[in-house]
Amino acid sequence: MATMQWIIWALSVVIALFVGGYLKSYMSKKGENLATKEDVAEITQTQKRIENKISDEFWIKQRNRQLKEEIVLKAFKSAMVLQKAIRDFYTEIGMPHTLDGRKVVSAHREMDATFQDFFQQHLLVKIVCGPKVEDNFSLIAVLTMAISREYTSSGTVSEEKYDEVMRTLKSLIDAVKADFEISLPRV
């Protein structure tokens, strides 16, 4: 019987080693799979957070660009209206043989009114645009005020000031193109 016990004991040890080895391997694989599953879940959550952050940042950049475009477009339109008002005013005062005081005063008032709108747009441009765009808008504002003061004090406007406003408007177009990194048709 002792031999039988030894055989049973030996078989038990062999079975225990086999089952222990199998269980160890099984549990190790199970643990590895669980760790991988947790890692995948963590990686997926991190990926989603990053995607959401990128999406939010992209949306914010797009919205800021859209707002900037709207502001610059309004300001640009205002600058073009101001350019026309200055041209009309300059045309009226530049024709002494047909000088009509009412037309000159009307053209001057129109220029002043368009300047007020332009100035309001200019303040918004200061907030959203780069220095070159802002500098050109500022120069146009200064030149327009100088033209108005010159006319108010002397009744005339120098051709140089008029030409400088027109050059600055062209420079403004180039600055807007550079600020937005786009190609616009030459105006």
Describe it for me?
- This protein is an all-alpha fold and 187 residues long.
- The protein has a domain at 79-180: Four Helix Bundle (Hemerythrin (Met), subunit A) (Up-down Bundle).
- Helices cover 89% and strands 0% of the residues.
- Helix 1 (2-93) packs antiparallel against helix 2, helix 1 (2-93) runs antiparallel to helix 4 and helix 2 packs antiparallel against helix 3.
- The longest helix has 92 residues, at 2-93.
- The chain is rod-shaped.
Structure summarized in a few sentences:
The protein has 187 residues and is an all-alpha fold.
Write the layout of secondary structure elements.
Elements: H1 2-93, H2 101-128, H3 131-154, H4 159-180
Helix pairs in contact: 1-2, 1-4, 2-3, 3-4
Describe the structure using short key phrases.
mainly alpha; rod-shaped; 187 residues
CA-based shape: rod-shaped
Instruction: Write down the secondary-structure element order.
Output: HHHH
Low-pLDDT stretches? none
Q: How far from one another are the termini?
A: 112 Å
Cα gyration radius (Å): 39 Å
How does the major sheet shape up? Answer: none
